[in-house]
Amino acid sequence: MTSPISRGFHRRNRPAAGDGSKIPPGQYLTRDFPVLSAGPTPHTRLPDWTFSIRRGGQTLRSWSWPEFQALPAESVTVDIHCVTRWSKLGTAWRGVPIGAVLDQVEHDAQYVLAFSDGGYTTNLPVKDLTGGQAWLAFDYDGQPLAPEHGGPARLLVPHLYFWKSAKWVRGLELLDHDQPGFWESYGYHNYGDPWREQRYAGD
Amino acid sequence: MARTAVRGRLTWQVATVASVAAETDSVRTIRLEVPGWPGHRAGQHLDVRLTAEDGYSAERSYSVAAADGEPVAITVERLDDGEVSPYLTEELRSGDQLEVRGPIGNWFTWSTADGGPLLLVAGGSGVVPLRAILRHRLRSGSDVPVRLLYSSRTLADVIYRSELDQPADGAQVSYTLTRSQPPGWTGFSGRVDEAMLAKVAWQASENPLAFVCGPTRFVETVAELLVARDYPAARVKTERFGGA
Amino acid sequence: MELDGNAIGGLLRDVFGTEMTDAEATCGTCGAIGPVAETVVYLRAPGTVVRCRHCTSLLMVISHIRGLNCVDLGGLGALDVNQSQ
C-alpha cells in the first residue's frame, strides 16, 4: 500500500525554488543545523583536553589546547552533507588543516581511525585528510564550536558524509590496515562519498 | 472491550481526522477515526507518519489523550522549530488523512489493577498521557487516590484546564507556573523542587506509584527527587519527550 | 535528542514482533537491569542508539538500511520479554 499524501505537508525550511545549487543525489537543502548524536554530549574541560596521534598503542605526538591553538589555522566555507539526507551549504569554520598535524609525525600509515570522547570512532584513508580536504575545526560561524556540535574540536571532512566529521575528536590512530569505525561497523559505507551516494555498505 | 493486542507487528493504518480542537493557543487535540483500532490503554502512544508529495516522510510519536474505550485522540503542542507539529496544529483539518501505528507501550501504562496511590507529575505537554490515566480512572469508577502536579509556563499554557479544575472524587490537582503567575494566584510558582514535592507527593510508606512525563530534563529532575524521597525506582515510571 | 525506550516502542514492535518497552534489559557491561522503556535512546543518529542509563554503554544499535532494520544487540547481557501479556 502506498502511503497517502498528507495534504499540504512538506519538509521544514525548504530554501526558495530556483536555488540552483548542486547538491549530491538524494539530499535536500536545509537552513537548520540538525544535531544528531549517538550518545551524551561530552563536556571535556580545555585544561584536560589533548589531541593525540597514536600508533600501535603508543602516543607519537600530543597537543594540549594551548599548543593546538598555536598551530596555523584557516577559515573555510564548505558545504556539508549528512547521510540522513540534509545538506547545508556555505558553512563557515575555522580549523587546523589535518595535514599540518600529520606532518609532525613520521609515519607511513595509509588509514586512520579517528577517536572521540564518548567512544565514537570513524575511519578514513590518510590521503583524504591531507591536501586541504580536512580540518580540526574549533570555530563555527564565528563562534567557538558549541558542545552539541562537537566542541571544543571536531573533524571537518566535507567531501565525505558528515558522520566522518567526528565530533569531540581527541585523536587519530594510525593504521596499517583499514578498520571500520562506529557507523561503518553498523552497516554504513566504509568510505562515504556523497556524490556517489555511498550511504550503506555495498553501495 | 477487547484487550489491546501486544503481539504481532503493527502495521501503518490510514486514519481520518474527525476533529481538531484548540486546547491553548499552541495546542490542539486531534480526534482520529482509525478503522479497526484495537483499543488502547491509558499511557500508551501512537506513531504518526506524514508523507509529502515529493515522497519525503516524517514520523513522530504522540501520547493518546483519551481513556480506554474513548475515541482515539492525540494532543499536540506546536513547537516553533518543529516540522510535524506546526502541520498538525495549524494545517490539519477534518477529513484529512494521515498514517498511524499503534497503540504502543506496555510500561508507561496504568490500569486500575495497578492500584496506587498514584502520583502523576507533568511538565508541559507531558500532561497528555497522565490526563488519559485520570480519565480512565474516572470512567472505570476506581477509587485509587491520585494527585497530579502539573508544571506549565503560564496559566494560559495549561492544557485541559477546565477538566482539571474539576477533578473527580479522590483526585487532587496542583499547578505550578514557572514563568509568570496571574494576580491573586494561589497555586505553586517556579520549577518542581524538593519543597513542592514535600507538599504534594505521597509518603514512600504509602507505597505510591508515580508517573512522570515531560521534557527530558524535567523528568530526570523529578524522578531523582522522588527517588530521594525513597520511592523505589521501579515505582517511578518515566516518559521523556524531546526538548529541554 | 536524548529520549528513552518509550520513544522506540513502535520500532521495537517492528523488530521483535511484540511489545518490548516492558522487556527487561540487562546491560552486558555493568550488569544493571531495567525495562527497555527506561534506557537512554538517541534517535536519528543516523541509526537508533540505545544506551544503559547507569553506565552509558551501548545496549542496542538499530541501523535503517535500504528499508531494513539492522539490529545489533551485542551490548545486552540479556533481554527478557514479558510473556504475561
Question: Can you summarize this structure?
Answer:
The complex is a heterotrimer of chains A (203), B (244) and C (85). By secondary structure, chain A is mostly beta strands.
Key phrases:
heterotrimer, B: 244 residues, alpha/beta, Rossmann fold, 2 domains, 6-stranded antiparallel β-sheet, 6-stranded parallel β-sheet, 18% helix, C: mainly beta, 5-stranded antiparallel β-sheet, 3-stranded antiparallel β-sheet
Please provide a written account of the structure.
The complex is a heterotrimer of chains A (203), B (244) and C (85). Chain A has helices at 65-69, 98-102, 182-185, and strands at 28-29, 50-55, 58-64, 74-81, 86-97, 111-116, 121-125, 135-140, 143-144, 154-156, 169-175. In chain A, the strands form two sheets. In chain A, strands 1, 4, 5, 8, 9 and 10 form a six-stranded mixed beta sheet that branches. A five-stranded mixed beta sheet of chain A has the order 3-2-11-6-7. Chain A is built from three helices and eleven strands, in the order βββαββαββββββα. The two termini of chain A are 27 Å apart. Chain A has a domain at 49-54 and 62-196: Sulfite Oxidase, Chain A, domain 2 (Alpha-Beta Complex). The longest helix of chain A is centred in the first third of the chain and has 5 residues, at 65-69. Chain A is mainly beta and 203 residues long. With 244 residues, chain B is α/β, with parallel strands linked by helices. Chain B folds into two domains: 13-104, Elongation Factor Tu (Ef-tu), domain 3, CATH 2.40.30; 112-241, 3-Layer(aba) Sandwich (Rossmann fold), CATH 3.40.50.80. Chain B contains five helices and twelve strands. Chain B has a six-stranded antiparallel beta sheet. A six-stranded parallel beta sheet of chain B has the order 10-9-8-7-11-12, sandwiched between helices. In chain B, strand 7, helix 2 (127-139) and strand 8 form a beta-alpha-beta unit. Chain C has one domain (2-80). In chain C, a hairpin with a 5-residue loop joins strand 2 (24-27) and strand 3. Classes of the chains: A mainly beta (203), B alpha/beta (244), C mainly beta (85). Chain A binds chain C through residues 35-40, 82-84, 118, 163, 183, 186-188, 200, and chain C through 1-2, 40, 42, 44-47, 49, 51, 56, 61, 63, 65-66, 70, 72.
